[in-house]
From TrEMBL:
SUPFAM superfamilies referenced in this protein's UniProt entry, alphabetically: Periplasmic binding protein-like II (SSF53850), Winged helix' DNA-binding domain (SSF46785)
Family, per entry: Belongs to the LysR transcriptional regulatory family.
Gene Ontology MF: a single term: DNA-binding transcription factor activity
GO cellular component, one term: cytosol
Keyword check for Nucleotide-binding: no
Gene3D superfamilies reported for this sequence: 3.40.190.290, Winged helix-like DNA-binding domain superfamily/Winged helix DNA-binding domain
The HTH lysR-type domain, residue ranges: 1-60
InterPro entries for the chain: HTH-type_LysR_regulators, LysR_HTH_N, LysR_subst-bd, WH-like_DNA-bd_sf, WH_DNA-bd_sf
Protein name: HTH lysR-type domain-containing protein
Record lineage: Bacteria, Bacillati, Bacillota, Bacilli, Lactobacillales
Keywords assigned: DNA-binding, Transcription, Transcription regulation
Amino acid sequence: MNLQSLQYFEKLIELQNYSSVADYFNVYQSTVSMGIKRLEKDLGCRLVIHNFKRNELILTSAGKALHKYAKVMVGQLPLINNDLKKYQQQLNLELGMPPMVDNTYFPKVAMNLSNSMLLNLKIVDRTSKELLRLLKRDELNMAVVASVKPIKLKDFHSEILAKDKFKLIVSKQSSLVNKKKIELKDLDSQKVIQMDDGFIQADVINEIKKKYPDALDVIYRTKDPELIKELVSANVGISMILGEEIDEKDDLLTIDLDCYNIPDVYISLIWRTSRKINERTQKLINTVVDSIKVS
């Protein structure tokens, strides 16, 4: 017995018109008619008789009997779909990560995940602020986020995995390449390529500019960290990067920023405590914590 056909049958009893049912489900009228005929064929009896003189639909005895049970079954469909959706969410794990955090830390996590978990893991790529909003709206179960202060949220557990600092990245043709450490006074009028507002890098640069308005001249913003590397490599400007996020192929140099006023960056794993955690989710939490904390 086809569930969709049952839905057509129940809606036909309610609306008393094939055309109206077709409009309701956004299908052709012939689709509804075929669905009713399929039910009748499966059950081996007529369910509906169309009285053309009175332009009304009459349920047969078999139709009335089916309606008694179909009404319950169709009424339970939203609950069934909701339960199936929850079950699917348990199979398909989601982990929020901003791009810079993803590039720096996810490879360490991936090395310790089983193949089946990797195949079923979806990385939700958003800014830390957007990920926090998704968590609060219950649209995401867990996320690794970056912040300039430790995060405390009601109904969530927040575990600090690492405390990092931004480094300067420059082209090998930059005038800054001979400096092992740089103070903010060395960055007066330096052209800066920055991540879009909402990303942790933008938060740190904004904090610096509050104290040293002339230190950094932002000329371009993007949400793509790879584009930032390309532009810096071409000596269009300088930028800032977390941890060890570059390699030899990037053709870039990193320089430590020698300034106590530059805020630390807290890398935290946050997950909801008001919901029961299944075994797979707990395994992912443990793997993320162990992989990043050990590193």
